[in-house]
Write a structure and sequence with these properties.
A six-stranded antiparallel sheet has the order 2-1-4-5-6-7, with helices on one face. It is α/β, with parallel strands linked by helices. It contains nine helices and 15 strands. Bound molecules: adenosine-5'-triphosphate and magnesium ion. The site of adenosine-5'-triphosphate has 17 residues, from helix 1.
């Protein structure tokens, strides 16, 4: 897909902004704090309904306002043109329109306009705690598999209900076991499906990312992914799962929280058999993340039959020459890219060998100045 243009109203530091993009490489540059990342964030909200920086949509509204609106014009690979409108109001929440028709659920948006984001915040995928990797996996799977997002929403609801029962049991309000039984069964069914889907996707992601990683690191290191699900797929009957729940029940009541299920899954990345999170150097983390992100891109493209757009926030500022070359080589394979960089740091300027259209946007004083186009 191609993002043709974007119109922002009252979004972050932009009061009103209209901007047209080129089909290949869009470089957004300017000084610190001028709104480069905000612009990428708006693209993420348009395509995924969520920011990669915050879960709190109120933060996206301009300081002096109470609502924002984003309009995005997109050309799909098959030739269809789509207009997405995201309106958010601090009191009434979010409304999504695709081609002027209000969507019934965000599942209609998520995955239809696939994006991959590599931003400083993405570092937590390899360096952060397990919930960061679960979040990464959830966003990717939601884009690939329409059913997954719905499953996840149901799972969160079931978990909340069950946890409430556990908390009430702690306060001795009633006999716990009768009330919890139906929720245990629901938990079993949904946990099983989520775990199966995650397991399958991680195998595919590993298959996609490993050769990319090998190339970036000149075959010196072997990258691998291990999925450690909390729910054991060998629990082929509900009774087996219930046995585990019963074993943990006292602890669950004390904590007021369910101890088994996909919300406790761990995903581990390894380099030459050693856990990246514990032993990886900063450079090794960056290479793995790069391979994961390009692997994610390829997977999305294959599964959705739609070419994603790639958002790169500040990636060049930390990258050494070897990896920069590898990254640039991969750029040639990608379709439409948006990247931000600092004024003094426009490395692509000196790389006409890209052979791709590059459009530069200079963000100055809350305004875009279109600079030049190289074909
Ligand atoms: P850097 O080069 O440091 O990464 P940047 O150009 O990417 O900078 P952004 O993160 O996009 O900068 O924008 C930050 C600016 O946006 C800050 O000046 C901040 O005050 C402003 N800003 C953030 N949220 C809002 C908001 N809700 N309303 C108005 N301005 C905001
Ligand atoms: Mg920034």
């Amino acid at each position: 897909m191609i993002l043709r243009s974007l119109e922002l109203e009252r979004f972050r530091n932009f009061t009103h902004k209209e901007i047209e993009f080129c089909d290949a490489i869009n470089v957004i540059y300017g000084l610190n704090g001028y709104g480069k990342t905000n612009l990428l964030e708006a693209i993420s909200v348009a395509c995924l309904s969520r920011s990669f920086r915050t879960r709190n949509d109120n933060e996206l509204v301009h300081f002096e306002e109470s609502n924002f609106k984003i309009l995005a014009d997109i050309g799909l690979d098959g030739g269809l043109e789509k207009r997405i409108q995201i309106s958010y109001n601090c009191d009434h929440g979010k409304e999504i329109l695709i081609n002027h028709t209000k969507t019934k659920s965000i599942a209609e948006l998520v995955g239809s306009f696939p994006i991959v984001v590599m931003a400083p915040e993405s570092d937590s995928v390899t360096t952060g705690p397990p919930q960061e990797r679960r979040r990464f996996l959830n966003i990717l799977l939601s884009q690939i598999d329409r059913e997954y997002l719905k499953l996840l929403q149901d799972y969160v609801r079931i978990l909340k209900q069950r946890n409430r029962l556990l908390q009430n049991a702690r306060e001795n309000r009633y006999k716990f076991s009768e009330k919890v039984q139906p929720w245990n069964e629901k938990l079993y069914t949904i946990s099983r499906t989520i775990t199966e889907k995650r397991s399958l996707l991680l195998k595919e992601l590993e298959k996609s990312a490993t050769p990319i990683h090998m190339e970036i690191t000149s075959h010196l290191e072997r990258f691998s992914i291990q999925y450690r699900p909390s729910f054991n797929l060998e629990w082929d009957k509900f009774e087996k799962f219930e046995e585990i729940l019963n074993k943990n029940i006292n602890l669950e009541i004390v904590r007021g929280a369910t101890m088994v299920g996909p919300h406790r899954d761990e995903i581990q990345f390894f380099l030459n058999g050693k856990e990246l999170r514990k032993f990886g150097s900063r450079g090794q983390h960056r290479c793995c993340l790069l391979a994961i992100k390009i692997g994610e891109y390829k997977l999305l493209q294959e599964k959705r039959s739609e070419t994603p757009i790639f958002l790169l926030d500040d990636v060049y500022s930390e990258i050494d020459e070897v990896r920069e070359k590898a990254l640039n080589d991969y750029f040639l394979d990608l379709k439409q890219i948006f990247l931000t960089t600092h004024e003094s740091d426009i490395k692509l300027d000196t790389k006409p060998e890209f052979g791709k259209e590059i459009k530069y946007y200079h963000i100055q004083d809350n305004s875009f100045a279109y600079k030049e186009m190289i074909s």
